[in-house]
Amino acid sequence: xxxxxxxxxxxxxxxxxxxxxxxxxxxxxxxxxxxxxxxxxxxxxxxxxxxxxxxxxxxxxxxxxxxxxxxxxxxxxxxxxxxxxxxxxxxxxxxxxxxxxxxxxxxxxxxxxxxxxxxxxxxxxxxxxxxxxxxxxxxxxxxxxxxxxxxxxxxxxxxxxxxxxxxxxxxxxxxxxxxxxxxxxxxxxxxxxxxxxxxxxxxxxxxxxxxxxxxxxxxxxxxxxxxxxxxxxxxxxxxxxxxxxxxxxxxxxxxxxxxxxxxxxxx
Length: 267
Fold this sequence. Notes:
Blueprint lengths: L1 H15 L3 H7 L1 E6 L2 E2 L3 E4 L2 E3 L1 H14 L4 E6 L5 H6 L5 E2 L7 H4 L2 E17 L14 E5 L3 H8 L3 E5 L2 H9 L5 E5 H4 L2 H4 L3 E19 L3 H17 L1 H14 L11 H7 L1
Pfam family, one: SBP_bac_3
GO cellular component, one term: extracellular region
Family: Belongs to the bacterial solute-binding protein 3 family.
């Protein structure tokens, strides 16, 4: 009987993930993050750095306590849902956009950033309007809002494995433009002066949120309370002014980073 109970406990952990009580007892939150998406997350000298990392550390401090630890686990846009479902991470902070299909598989916190689809092109091509790309090849990472928006509008899209490969294909001339979340594509001209983003907000607005395993209600509730408190405290405003805006050099509108009106409704 004891073996049966133990097996059921293990199975429950696999099905539902670590509860908030278990996380506090262990003193560790496992956070899935991306490996190469500055200014949000990147690896420098073997260590993760960026806004997502600072965000994760602050969440751990407030939810677990001063002695809490964050265990960073590298995920991709294609395996982050699986990482949650298989209890490899407790939450995901990885440019995770809320959409109805994903909401069937994981639970999302309140949003913390807004995004639209942005279009990256070569400066020498002088594209200024989305209509100029109607007969062109637009590179997109598969299973993204950019892909959905452009396909719905009837554009010719070519799928890539990830953002880096889209960038590489654009540079190699195997596509005329590269579309993705504008907060991501706006980073490329900062690093590559031969590129530009003249089309910054195509399609409908989407939102970044923290993903947790489906049904992990206590952890989700704690995260939502934390987001409201961080907004009241000015955490996102400070991050925008001191970290994000300096990185983007004023090219990314603050409206994408400051969702105070949303938090006022709930807070």
